[in-house]
Specification:
By secondary structure, the chain is an alpha+beta fold. The chain is built from 20 helices and 36 strands. The two termini are 90 Å apart.
Length: 766
């Protein structure tokens, strides 16, 4: 096969409308581009005249759907129209004359792009070299690459020098829209622009007053900017660029910026090209005019190179503003964006004049803290404990209080660490002062606590000392690796004071055990990991004889309140639990029909929550829900619950005092449960191998064994106790329900409970 080739076939009838729509998308784009062409034509004419003549203008006429743009520029001959205007890819603005004149547009799209929003386009033009007036026109629907579609004729002899472009718009616009749209575009032009005979208001390119400021030279990347910076008292600034060097070359440019503007408009010779999307930490915006800025074809945007130039210029301006703020007294505290700039750029060394609060004193510049020795300067955030800061101040340390603003706080911290040898102030409980002199009662409590921890809980290597703690803490043990461990007690704490007041009471030993269990041991667990099991067994050993030793007169209201504070119980509950107890005398308990409460709703809600899960998952969900459920009852009725859920039919509540003492057993040990009976007694035995055994004894008024079971016996229960938020309930064997569930009368029985024993050898791994 011989070698062949062919050209690419282009359907201009299809391509031209698509090209036009892609470039000019609205009547305003048509308006702007043709006003820009008119301005370019006038600039070229002024270049030929060698002066900026005052006899030039741009006139715009809007008549319904007809929009005309007229200029007094160089005009076009028929040959110019054929070669440049009614063609694609050629432009008369690529000449050396056009470049010297500084024209804005150079794309060579020509008049064809206007058909994106016009149905008809007409051009009338006259040059100064050729006196003939030429008119050319085309219809959108007749555009073709294969047949004639652009027509020429002689124009009116009285047509002025220059060009008039008239388009019939597919989408109408009104006069106010034209005026509002054009005003920012032409406001800096040095020639008049009229719309239907009315001149658009124009103004001089802005400048900055040369007062309350100074000249700065700054470099950022490829841009070196010479500028005048004027900082205002309200935390704003104005900047006028006097010179720009970009990539080592001086750029013909003028620019004025101000903070809190955020929009940068690009101009060329006073004609607005577009707003430039830029990034500015200070929120800088303003106007930039340069012959190096270029628009994109038909779009209200600038080229990537132009955007890069503006962004580089802005980066240099921001660095100059930051430098000015950093050396001008009082400005740093007025510009919040100054701190954002430093965190973004890493130039935290500029923060020297910024002031920082110092504990116990006035604000002072960060630079005044430079050069201090290590362990002299500390910094802290608001909310740090005042006692810590005061203690450091008393030791001649300086505590700088960081700002609440995140950016400023990071700058302050970075500056203090890098230039001031500052260290962070600990924001945790600490002892700011050891107390050597204690009262007699305080010394007794200190001795008793250390002695009991050593002899009863087998905690060696721990010293109990008095100290003033921060954060309102009652107890604190420093975390140290190796060496002697210290437990600090703050005797100023209200609960320690109440505990000292109970020292001579009969209930002190029991209250002291509760205090150690609930408050002291949790503080020691990190330093003595073995306590997580050992402490509990030691506590149970102590509580074996609790029944024999609790004795509180319910009329002693102050003592009940003190005990309530340590047991986290309401005073009336404390009185109810312990008030009627006498040494060795059990309390009678009775149950009426009103004391029976159904738990069907709680169970059904848990089942519904775990719908679709396994039975074990439902049981787990039920266990969690019960821990959050509070029920005030002596008996729970679960007779309507599905059997597969695994609940007993009825449950008996522990007495209040048993619940206080044994709840932790059921939560942590989950012991096995045996039930035994004989004569008038029945009892629950809760045990775990090698650990404590709890016996819960019930004495009935009637003889057991007459209905449904033998007179004596023992069985292991299939159901575990239910642990609710405020109570523990024991499963009742079905054959004993008639002895515990009231039918027609109130049942009375007596309950005793105790720890039967604790193994001397405990497996801490189980």
């Amino acid at each position: 096969m011989t070698k062949q080739s062919h050209a690419i076939d282009v359907d201009l009838e299809l391509i031209l409308p698509i090209l036009a729509r892609a470039i000019y998308t609205s009547p305003f784009a048509f308006l702007r581009e043709n006003v820009q062409n008119a301005f370019d034509a006038i600039r070229m004419q002024q270049y030929r005249e060698l002066i900026e003549s005052q006899n030039h203008e741009i006139s715009i006429t809007l008549n319904e759907d007809r929009l005309s743009i007229t200029d007094t520029g160089i005009g076009m001959t028929k040959e110019d129209l054929v070669s440049y205007y009614w063609s694609i890819g050629k432009s008369g603005k690529h000449t050396s004359e056009a470049k010297a004149a500084g024209v804005v547009g150079t794309f060579g799209i020509g008049g064809m792009a206007n058909f994106g929003i016009c149905t008809r386009l007409e051009v009338t033009s006259r040059t100064r070299d050729v006196n003939d007036v030429v008119v050319s026109y085309a219809e959108r629907q007749n555009l073709s690459a294969s047949r004639d579609c652009v027509f020429y004729d002689n124009g009116p002899a009285d047509h002025h020098f220059g060009t008039t472009v008239t388009g019939r718009l597919m989408q109408s616009i009104n006069l106010n829209e034209v005026l509002n749209y054009l005003q920012p575009i032409v406001r800096f032009l040095d020639l008049p622009v009229l719309v239907n005979g009315t001149r658009i208001q124009q103004e001089e390119f802005p400048t900055v007053k040369k007062e309350d400021g100074c000249e700065r030279v700054s470099t950022s990347g490829s841009a070196t900017v010479t500028m005048f910076v004027r900082a205002l008292q309200n935390g704003q600034a104005q900047i006028e660029v006097e010179k720009l060097q970009w990539d080592g070359k001086e750029v013909d440019l003028r620019a004025v910026f101000e903070t809190n503007s955020e929009t940068v408009a690009a101009y060329q010779h006073g004609f607005m090209l577009a707003n430039v999307p830029v990034t500015s930490v200070f929120g800088i915006g303003g106007v930039v005019d340069s012959a190096m800025l270029r628009p994109t074809a038909g779009r209200e945007a600038v080229t990537d190179a132009s955007r890069e130039l503006v962004q580089s210029l802005l980066a240099g301006v921001e660095r100059g503003l930051a430098d000015h703020i950093s050396v001008t007294e009082g400005l740093a505290d007025r510009f919040s964006s100054f701190y954002r700039y430093m965190t973004r750029t890493g130039f935290c060394d500029l923060a020297g004049p910024a002031t920082v609060r110092v504990h116990g004193g006035a604000r002072r510049p960060l630079s005044s803290l430079r050069g201090f020795p290590i362990d002299k300067i500390y910094y802290a955030r608001d909310g740090h404990d005042q006692a810590i800061m005061q203690a450091y101040a008393e030791r001649q340390k300086i505590v700088a209080l960081l700002s609440r603003d995140g950016h400023r706080q990071r700058v302050e911290r970075t500056y203090l660490e890098n230039y001031c040898n500052a260290q962070p102030l600990e924001d945790s409980v600490t002892c700011v002062r050891i107390v050597e002199k204690l009262s007699f009662s305080q010394s007794v409590l200190q001795f008793q606590l250390q002695s009991r921890l050593r002899t009863q809980f087998l905690i060696d290597g721990l010293q109990v000392k008095a100290g003033e703690l921060t954060h309102g803490a009652m107890l604190w043990i420093p975390r140290k690796k190796g060496g002697e461990k210290i437990l600090f007690v703050d005797f100023r704490h209200a609960q320690i004071k109440r505990l000292i007041e109970l020292t001579d009471s009969l209930s002190f030993d029991s209250v002291f055990d509760i205090f150690i269990r609930d408050f002291v041991l949790p503080h020691l667990e990190n330093s003595f990991p073995e306590l997580r099991k050992r402490d509990f067994d030691a506590l149970l050993r102590k509580l074996q004889s609790t029944v024999e030793h609790f004795e509180i007169d319910p009329r002693d209201i102050s003592r009940i309140r003190q005990l309530a504070a340590f047991t986290n119980m309401a005073p009336e509950h404390v009185a109810a639990v312990f008030g009627a107890r006498r040494s060795g005398i059990p309390r009678p308990t009775s149950i009426g029909r009103n004391d029976v409460v159904s738990v069907t709703q709680q169970v059904n809600e848990a089942v519904q929550q775990a719908s679709g899960m396994s039975v074990q998952s439902i049981r787990n969900e039920l266990e969690l829900r019960f821990l959050e459920t509070e029920v005030n009852a002596k008996l729970l009725d679960a007779t309507e619950i599905q059997a597969e859920i695994g609940l007993a039919r009825y449950y008996l509540a522990l007495t209040s005092d048993a619940h206080v003492l044994y709840r932790r057993i059921f939560l942590e040990r989950k012991p096995a449960t045996d039930f035994s009976w004989g004569g008038h007694r029945a009892g629950y035995l809760f045990y775990s191998h090698g650990q404590s055994v709890v016996y819960y004894d019930i004495q009935f008024e009637e003889l057991l064994g007459e209905i449904g079971h033998d007179r004596v016996g023992t069985r292991t229960l299939d159901h575990s106790p239910l642990v609710l938020k405020s109570m523990v309930f024991l499963p009742i064997p079905k054959s004993f329900e008639q002895h515990v569930i009231p039918k027609n009368k109130t049942l009375r029985f007596t309950i005793q409970h105790q720890i039967m024993g604790v193994s001397s050898v405990v497996d801490y791994n189980n």
